[in-house]
Amino acid sequence: MQNNDILRRLRYALDLNDATMIAIFKLAEHEITKDELLNFLKKDEQEGFVELNHQTMALFLEGLITHKRGKPTTPIVQAAPMTFLSNNDVLKKIRVALEFKEDDMLNTLKLADFALSKSELSAFFRKKGQKNYRDCGDQVLRNFLQGLAIHKTGAKDPEALH
Fold first, then answer.
1. Burial of 104 from C-beta contacts in 10 A (0-12 / 13-18 / 19+)
2. What is the separation of C-alpha 8 from the centre of its chain, rounded to a whole number of angstroms?
3. CB of 59 within 8 A of CB of 30?
4. Is 53 helix (H, G, I), strand (E, B) or coil?
5. Considering Cα of 39, then 43, then 49, then 55, what sign does the dihedral take?
6. How many CA atoms lie within 13 A of 111 on its CB side?
7. What angle do CA 138, 67, 139 make, to 5 degrees?
8. Structure confidence by residue, pLDDT tens digits, 85-124
9. Would you say 11 and 21 are in contact if contact means Cβ atoms under 8 Å apart?
10. Where are the domains of the chain?
């Protein structure tokens, strides 16, 4: 899934305004202007669209975790810059930010009429290379974000979610 689309869907699902999104980036020690944010939120056919790279998307998700859960009490070891952010990584970071348990994740997917078993879900959170690891496809992430929007906003119309 394209990072810009994930950012737009999270914005809608979590009802985040421009100022809050800029503050979330700042929590990850990444300064962003309102114009830069608006260009990230544009669709790729719109004039001024700027593609959101994996590193910047990862910083937003880290900021979202801090925004939702507060500053960690122990110092965080700075990770190496991300050159690739998989759907599994995105799903994990959203799960951590929202403090979702397995049942919360499954119920959110169910809201989007997407059924997944507990073992299928847990495969997304395993370490890559582990026997039961499974890549999270765009369809799963898209349905999770749609279910999240339905959960947070009550909107049932999928067209309202874009």
1. middle
2. 9
3. yes
4. coil
5. positive
6. 22
7. 10
8. 999 999 999 999 999 999 999 999 999 999 999 999 999 9
9. yes
10. 3-161
